[in-house]
Structure formats: structure tokens, C-alpha cells
UniProtKB/TrEMBL annotation, chain A:
PANTHER family in the record: DNA PRIMASE LARGE SUBUNIT
Listed cofactors: [4Fe-4S] cluster
Annotated ranges, domain DNA primase large subunit C-terminal: 302-469
Protein name: DNA primase large subunit
UniProtKB/TrEMBL annotation, chain B:
GO terms of molecular function: DNA-directed RNA polymerase activity; metal ion binding
Pfam families assigned: DNA_primase_S
Recorded family membership: Belongs to the eukaryotic-type primase small subunit family.
Keywords: DNA replication, DNA-directed RNA polymerase, Metal-binding, Nucleotidyltransferase, Primosome, Transcription, Transferase, Zinc
Natural source organism: Apolygus lucorum
InterPro entries assigned to the protein according to its UniProt record, in alphabetical order: DNA_primase_S, DNA_primase_ssu_euk/arc
Listed name of the protein: DNA primase
An example Gene Ontology CC term for this record: alpha DNA polymerase:primase complex
Organism classification: Eukaryota, Metazoa, Ecdysozoa, Arthropoda, Hexapoda
EC number assigned by the record: 2.7.7.-
Group of enzyme by EC: transferase
Any one GO BP annotation for this protein: DNA replication initiation
Co-factor requirement: Mn(2+); Mg(2+)
Length: 521, 407
């Protein structure tokens, strides 16, 4: 009944060097070493939860190739997701597999679709590569919160895809192998539950009990009836349970690895592989603040009009009208400002001038200036936090009275259309954007917003609000240069002075600590 | 009895921490039956000293250290943080300190009800708007007990404008962060307003927890909201509701309202029209009456507090520095009759204490010593609530210590 998987710990923290228990790199294996073939006993099923760490010898070449292939699979999943296909649907499944075939990933394709490769040895090898590549990418993607989130999201999608290809009997076999059991609700229990649930449950359906803690996602979205800590799930919900537990194990393992990454420094070959794979992520991480042109805060209103993505524009307008923003909005907007080149001094000045329209300076200094300095890496553990990416912004929850988050997600169509009214877009364009947003393609909606704001510009896929800003400025600059050639002036000022900033290290989420002004009374 | 004045606070606090603060019960709570000795010593405590000086990351090796420090520093406010993997006071820059345990907490702030209350604004709370808080308490308490099966729930009035809920069951304290946020979001029904001002949209298959909440609200909605808050008594209030209606419904409701004069009459008229027209309404209005009841009375949670395991929350038994009122546990079952104005303030408590001492001065000294100080004051009733909570908690802790395999 209790669903528990041991957390695999990839490294032994007491060791001074990278220690892959059986992957012994000290015996340099440039050529493929013979696999100690144990038959399929070690991998009795095509799907695995990667609970044990890989314990075998493998050549660097094979390792590198399998990592590259897995990465390609994960990136394909992301791309298909970005095209707006909903995970788990028939369309999504087909598109992913078609795209994978284009990339020539025969082995992986067979594995994912649960088709045999023809012989036991080949099947075994493929499952082994699946195992190995998963573990290596864990290391590659453990470094930052953004990377971890990306990796977990993709692996979860991958697992879901593979589950879809399993037959009913293969699924039961998998549950059995992994020792996952649920108790079925008997007729009397069912009767009681049907009554308690105000008819939410039906007598005709079969139900299984499971502790609510194991079905967090179903609870979150209120998709299941829960009573006294037990959720009543249907057969179809079992995948959610599996995913929740898989996600939890994965996230623990990644966090564990991230604290021990330094042990890799001793092995340049592995370090190279790991770093190499980690760079290929297509999620935008915005670290480009060194040598950035300084932005004058007096220009912010203009910039908000011409170069801000909608999320930032909304918060900027809100701040200008009510002279206050709540914690998460301050964080999201504040880091964005840092990213576009507003210095710490200017940032303090900017927030102070707005906030002090409705609070006294003393209160501002006490409650807010610490957090602003903190986000510039001048307080606490002194990490220079990176501006939030779209992924991050989209995934944060926004409740009533809050203005952070992604407006394409948080606003319903009428509200979004209203927000777009001032943009000067045609009605068709406005509806195009609202439609994209409604279908859940938030980044595409933002990209469309970008192309309508910058007529004639190349199509840009927005993955980061600062990316939006930079691209916009680039276009305006080039226009300005053209105009200057013709002898006219422009609204955007040329770069003033260079500001040096440290490269940001981690995500701001982890150690923002508390916001003193929001400490409840 | 004199009124509380913030100037006298330092002096009063010193007496309060010396004579009244319930150290024993308080530290027993945070020790959780001493199943694990780190539970107390790895707990972050934050003090706020006069002049808004925050001292974060404090921790105390044993209860007596806490007592001594509290009497020495006399903080204006105490916040309780999480239990960490190391002693918070030993935290250095860049050290890896992870949350290992944290009560599941909820914070409801009356200011979040500003768009649906008319009696007070900002930090003020009167018995009318307290009723909204008591509905919130009832709904949340029922959900936590019936849906999640929690047993050890402590409800605390913050001393001014908020209520806090501490769920202290072992499972709750050890929740993973994604589960914590799932619980929070499960209980957060109201989301950001859409363009018509609606904060909730129900579907035909309404979740049982929401139906149960509606039953709770329905019993008191007219008394608390329609009448108490006079929600349809002003043109602004009517407008707010009219905006949520689709055209054909609004066309019927608006003229009907103009003819009527009280909030209750208007509400009844609206419900009547709604029931009659229900079949013709589009999905966004199909459940409008239920949605309005939720929007006006469902708990408005600050879920960031619940989600973030490292979030601080004001401790029970500290004194609100502005009002002088004690931050005390209350009984969720009788929340409806709880009177926030009746909560004793620090100066009242100390006067009561002195009064008692004067009366019994003639009697023998042992009588005096045998009676715990707080029993001589109006803190007594909330202490009983706290003691009972603690007794049940300690029984559970002991059982889980005896049988650690039990879930």
C-alpha cells in the first residue's frame, strides 16, 4: 500500500573523488568493453524507475552517444510541448514519435514504444543505455533550479509517453515489479464514499484507496474525492500516482547531486560530458548582464511602452497607478529591471519614489530596501539572482489581488483583450493572441505579441522576458541607426555607460527567506 | 481598567515574560514529545525587538535557554520558523540548511476581505467582519479534519487582523513541498478576478469539498453577508454583482433591485430570478449564486505562507505591539461567538495578576505559589484550549514513538 522507492544516491559524499562504483574510469576504456551480459533479469521491463544507479562498465563513446540521444528525446518533447500539443493526448503522442523518427533515434523509438529490438541482447543494451543516459543527465541538469525543473518536467513527459504505449498487462506487470499496490474499495466502502462525496463518485466505477500525499497533483486540481487522508482514485488515475512519486524521487535525487557536483572537478572527462550536455538546454537562462548598457530609470515609462513584454508592462503600470506591488511581483519585476540594466542604486531610487507615495521613507527602508539589495546579491548569502524565465513565471501561482505571473496564463480572454486594447494592435491580432493564450500556448502568445509590436521583425520565440526586451531593443536600435543615416532622431537613447555585474548564480526562489513586509501579523 | 498604550509596552513585556508567558506548555509543544531531540533545538525562532529590529535564525538548545533569552531580550514579537537540518544559530553564509519539519500553516488576513466587507477597512476588525473569519475557520477546519484526516490543529487569533492555523500532525509537519503546495491549492478556491470580477467559476461537477463549504456558507450567508455586510445595500455593491451577470439576467435583476430597498430583499429577489432563469443561462452564470456565496465568504488564504516551508509565522502567546492584545488560541467550534474585542490585552492581564496577588496577599504563600500565574488572569480560557491541544498531541507523539512503523 505504501508507495516508497529508495532514493538513489549517485555519489558517495564521503569520497574525495568522483566515484562511480562500477563505472571504473581509471581503466581507460576507449574501446567498447564487453558487456557483462546478465540477460534481461536486470531490466525485466522496458520501463524503469531508475532506482538503482548504473553499475557496469561502459565506454566513454557509448556514454556520450546515449546522452546525446536522450537529450534529443527530451528536447523533442519540449518542442512538441511548445507547439501547444497537450501532453498525454493522441496528437501529442503521434507528433513526438514522428519527430523522434526524423532524428534517427531508432533504438530509443523502439524502447519508448515498447517494441522489441529483435533480440534479448539488443533489448538489454537499449535498456541499459536508457538507464545510463538518465543518470548522466541527472548530473548535467542538477546544477540550477531552472535546469532541474526542466529536466524533471521532460522526464515526466517521457515517462507518460512510454506508459501510453504499454498494454494493460504490461502495466500491471510494471506495478507488480515495483511493488506498488493499492487496496480496492469494497462495496460498502464505496457506498459510504458515494454518499459522502455528494455524488462526485459513482457506484458503477471501481475505486482504489491511496494516501492523499501520493496523489498531490490530483488533490491540487480537485480531481479526486478525498476523505480522512485517503484519496479514491480510478484505474486511469494510477499514472498520476506513479508520476507523483517518480517526480518526488527525481527531485530529491537532483537536489542531492547538486550539492555534490564539486566531486566531479577531479575527473575532467566526466566533467566535460556532463557540462556539455547541460548546456544544450533550450530553456533560456538569462545570464547576460555583464557589460550591459545602463538603463536610465527616467526612461522606464517609455521602455515599458515599446520594449516590455506584457507581464512586465502590467506590473509597471500597476506600480505607477497604485504605488505598490506585492512580494512576488516586486521580485519578478525587480529582477527583470536588474536584467535590463538598472543599477542597484537606481533600482532603490525607483522603488522608493513609487512606494513612498503611500508609505513613509522609514518604512520603505525597513521593509523593502533589504530585499532589493538582496536580489542584487548584496545581502544574505550574496547570490546574484538571475531574472526569472518564462517557465518560472508561468509556473508560479497567482491568486487574487496579485499581478505577477504570466498574463497570458492568468488573465481570461476578455481581460486579456482589455489589456491588449492599448497596444494599437488590430482586432484580428488581438484575437489571435488571446486565442493562443486560451489554448495554453502562453509563450507563443507572447511571441505573437512581440511580432505585432515590432512590425517587420523576424519571428522570435520568447522564452525569457529579458530576451523579449533585448530583442526589442536590438530591433529599435537598428531602426534608429537606419533613421540616423537618414538624419532623423529617435526616442531610444544610445548606450550611456557600461555597468559591470557579477554573473548570477542561483535561482532566487531558494533563499529569498522572508519578505519582512509580508510577515503576517 | 486602563487602555493600552504602546509607550508602556517595554515595561509590560518584561513583566509578561517573567510571570505570564506559558513557557512550559509552549516548549512542550515545540518539542513534540521529544521523539527527536532536534525538533526543539533545530527550530528557527525570530525575535523582533523594539524599533523593528529582526533577529533571524535563532535557536535554543533547551527550553530553559529559550526562557532566559526571552526574558533578557523582551521581544515585541516572536516568529516561529521551520525545523532545520542543523541548528539555525550555527548557520553561516552559504551553509546548506534544509527544512526537515514544518507545521502546515494557514494565514487568513481580514484585509484580504476588503472587497467584500463594508463594516471596516484595513487592519480594523469588528464583530461583524469577524463572522467572515469564523466562516473561514469552520470551512478550513472541516476540510483539514475530514478530507485530510488531520487531528492536531491549533487555531490562533493573531491579536489584530488575522487568524493563523497550525496543523501539527506528524504527517503534516513532514510534508514534501509539492504536497504542501497541493494542499494549499486544493483549499484555495478563489483565484484572481476575471474581467467580470468573478473569482471562481464552477463547473457542473462541483468538487465535494466545495459543496460542503457551500452548505456551511449557506446557513449564515444572509445573516453575515447580505445583512451584516449589507452587500447589496449600496450602489457600489450592487454594481459589483451586476457586472458578473450576463445581459439577459442583468436586465431582469437590475430593475427588480431598483424597486427594493434593503440588501436582504434584493438578495432574495435575485435568487428568485436566478432560479427561474437558470435553464437559459450560459455556463458562466449557471452557478452564479453559489459562486457569489463562495466569493463573498470562502476563506481567503495567503497561500504563499502555506507553501513555503521556510516562511515565518507569528507565534501564539506573543503580544501585538500595536494593540497590546495577546495572540491566543481559540476554539474553532465556537469561533462564531468568539469576540476579538474581548481578547485580553497585556495591561489588562498584568492588572488582573496584580489584583489577584493583592486579594490573596493575606492568605498563605503556598496557595499563591501553587496556582500558575496565567490561571489568575483571563488568559486562562485560551490556555485550557492550548493545554487540551497539547495533551492530544503528546499522546499521538508517544504512540508514534512506541510504534514508529505506524503511519
Amino acid at each position: 500500500m505504501h508507495l516508497s522507492f529508495t532514493t538513489p544516491f549517485f555519489y558517495n559524499s564521503s569520497c574525495s573523488c568522483a566515484h562511480f562504483p562500477v563505472m571504473d574510469f581509471s581503466r581507460v576504456c576507449r574501446r567498447s568493453t564487453k558487456v557483462n551480459f546478465e540477460g534481461l533479469q536486470k531490466y525485466p521491463h522496458e520501463l524503469q524507475l531508475y532506482n538503482d544507479f548504473p553499475a557496469f562498465t561502459i565506454s566513454i563513446g557509448e556514454l556520450e552517444q546515449s546522452m546525446a540521444e536522450r537529450l534529443c528525446v527530451l528536447q523533442t518533447l519540449e518542442e512538441v510541448g511548445n507547439r501547444g500539443l497537450k501532453v498525454g493526448t493522441e496528437d501529442w503522442r503521434k507528433t513526438v514519435i514522428e519527430d523522434l523518427k526524423k532524428h534517427n533515434l531508432r533504438g530509443f523509438c523502439k524502447l519508448l514504444t515498447a517494441t522489441s529490438l529483435g533480440s534479448d541482447v539488443e533489448d538489454f543494451n537499449m535498456r541499459r543505455r536508457d538507464h545510463m543516459s538518465h543518470y548522466m543527465l541527472r548530473v548535467s541538469y542538477s546544477e540550477s533550479e531552472d535546469k532541474r525543473r526542466w529536466f524533471i518536467a521532460r522526464e515526466i513527459e517521457l515517462f507518460r509517453l512510454r506508459w501510453l504505449y504499454l498494454t494493460e498487462s504490461k502495466r500491471s506487470e510494471f506495478l507488480l515489479l515495483n511493488n506498488i499496490k493499492y487496496s480496492k474499495a469494497d462495496d460498502r466502502e464505496k457506498q459510504t464514499a458515494v454518499k459522502l462525496s455528494y455524488g462526485f463518485m459513482t457506484v458503477s466505477q471501481e475505486y482504489y484507496f491511496i494516501p492523499v500525499w501520493q496523489v498531490a497533483d490530483l488533490v491540487r486540481s480537485r480531481k479526486v474525492f478525498i476523505h480522512k487522508g485517503m484519496a479514491y482514485i480510478t484505474n486511469d488515475d494510477i499514472i498520476s500516482v506513479l508520476l507523483a512519486s517518480y517526480r518526488a524521487t527525481l527531485s530529491q535525487a537532483l537536489a542531492y547531486i547538486s550539492r555534490r557536483l564539486h566531486v566531479l572537478d577531479d575527473d575532467p572527462r566526466i566533467l566535460g560530458l556532463v557540462k556539455g550536455a547541460g548546456k544544450n538546454t533550450r530553456e533560456v537562462e538569462y545570464t547576460n548582464f555583464a557589460n550591459k548598457d545602463k538603463v536610465d530609470i527616467r526612461q522606464l515609462d517609455t521602455l515599458a511602452e515599446i520594449s516590455y513584454p506584457l507581464c512586465m508592462r502590467q506590473m509597471h503600470q500597476r506600480l505607477r497607478t497604485v504605488h505598490h506591488l506585492k512580494h512576488f511581483a516586486r521580485l519578478q519585476y525587480g529582477l527583470f529591471l536588474k536584467g535590463i540594466g538598472v543599477s542597484l542604486e537606481d533600482s532603490l531610487l525607483f522603488w522608493r519614489s513609487e512606494f513612498c507615495k503611500q508609505m513613509d521613507v522609514e518604512k520603505f527602508e525597513k521593509s523593502h530596501s533589504y530585499n532589493i539589495r538582496h536580489s542584487y546579491g548584496r545581502e544574505g548569502k550574496r547570490s546574484n539572482y538571475a531574472p526569472q524565465s518564462c517557465m518560472k513565471i508561468i509556473s508560479t501561482s497567482v491568486s487574487a489581488g496579485q499581478y505577477h505571473g504570466c498574463p497570458f496564463k492568468t488573465l481570461d480572454s476578455p481581460a486579456l483583450l482589455k489589456a491588449l486594447q492599448g497596444s494599437g494592435f488590430s482586432m484580428i491580432a488581438q484575437h489571435e493572441i488571446a486565442d493562443l493564450a486560451k489554448k495554453g500556448h502562453y509563450q507563443l502568445a507572447c511571441s505573437a505579441h512581440f511580432s505585432h509590436s515590432h512590425k517587420g521583425a523576424d519571428q522570435v520565440l520568447i522564452g525569457h522576458p529579458n530576451h523579449y526586451f533585448d530583442e526589442s531593443q536590438k530591433i529599435l536600435m537598428s531602426k534608429m541607426v537606419k533613421k540616423e543615416e537618414k538624419g532623423s532622431s529617435t526616442i531610444v537613447k544610445p548606450p550611456a555607460e557600461k555597468v559591470k555585474a557579477d554573473t548570477p548564480k542561483t535561482d532566487v526562489w531558494e533563499d529569498m527567506g522572508i519578505d519582512l513586509s509580508d510577515v503576517p501579523l | 481598567m486602563g487602555k493600552f498604550s504602546p509607550d508602556t509596552l517595554p515595561e509590560l513585556l518584561s513583566v509578561y515574560y517573567r510571570r505570564l508567558f506559558p513557557y512550559d506548555a509552549y516548549t512542550r509543544w515545540l518539542s513534540y514529545g521529544n521523539v527527536n531531540s532536534n525538533t526543539f533545538s533545530h527550530r528557527e525562532m525570530c525575535f523582533t525587538l523594539a524599533g523593528d529590529i529582526y533577529i533571524r535564525y535563532q535557536s535554543f538548545d533547551k527550553p530553559s535557554d529559550f526562557e532566559n533569552e526571552l526574558q533578557k531580550k523582551c521581544p515585541e514579537k516572536i516568529d516561529i520558523g521551520a525545523v532545520y537540518s542543523m541548528k539555525p544559530k550555527q548557520k553561516k553564509l552559504g551553509s546548506d540548511m534544509e527544512v526537515v519539519e514544518r507545521e502546515l500553516i494557514f494565514d487568513i488576513d481580514i484585509t484580504d476581505y476588503d472587497s467584500v466587507r463594508t463594516c471596516c477597512k484595513d487592519a480594523d476588525v469588528c464583530s461583524k467582519c469577524w463572522k467572515l473569519m469564523s466562516i473561514a475557520t469552520k470551512i478550513l477546519d472541516t476540510a483539514l479534519r475530514d478530507d485530510f484526516g488531520f487531528k492536531h490543529i491549533l487555531w490562533v487569533f493573531s491579536g489584530r487582523r488575522g487568524i493563523h492555523c497550525w496543523v501539527c500532525d506528524e504527517v503534516a509537519r513532514k510534508l514534501e513541498s509539492n504536497v504542501r503546495s497541493a494542499v494549499a491549492e486544493y483549499l484555495q478556491v478563489l483565484i484572481r478576478e476575471d474581467s467580470t470580477g468573478k473569482m471562481v467559476n464552477l463547473s457542473d461537477k462541483t468538487h465535494p469539498s466545495i459543496k460542503r463549504a457551500l452548505e456551511i456558507i449557506d446557513k449564515v450567508f444572509v445573516e453575515v453577508c447580505v445583512e451584516g455586510q449589507n452587500i447589496l445595500g449600496t450602489s457600489q455593491g450592487m454594481l459589483q454583482m451586476l457586472q458578473m451577470m450576463e445581459d439577459n439576467l442583468r436586465k431582469e435583476v437590475e430593475p427588480a433591485w431598483e424597486k427594493l430597498h434593503t440588501s436582504v430583499d434584493r438578495w432574495n429577489a435575485f435568487v428568485g430570478i436566478f432560479e427561474r432563469m437558470r435553464g437559459e443561462l450560459k455556463w458562466k452564470n449557471k452557478h452564479l449564486v453559489d459562486e457569489i456565496m463562495l466569493q463573498w465568504a470562502y476563506p481567503r488564504l495567503d497561500i504563499a505562507v502555506t507553501k513555503g516551508a521556510n516562511h515565518l509565522l507569528k507565534s501564539p502567546f506573543c503580544i501585538h505591539p500595536k494593540t497590546g492584545k495577546l495572540c491566543i488560541p481559540f476554539n474553532p467550534a465556537t469561533a462564531f461567538t468568539f469576540d476579538p474585542d474581548g481578547v485580553p490585552s497585556i495591561n489588562e492581564l498584568i492588572e488582573e495578576l496584580q489584583e489577584f496577588d493583592r486579594k490573596v496577599a493575606q492568605e498563605e504563600d503556598d496557595v499563591k505559589r501553587k496556582v500558575k500565574n496565567y490561571k489568575k488572569t483571563s488568559m486562562y480560557k485560551s490556555m485550557q484550549i492550548f493545554e487540551e491541544f497539547l495533551r492530544n498531541l503528546e499522546v499521538s507523539c508517544r504512540n508514534s514513538k512506541a510504534d514508529p512503523m505506524e503511519f
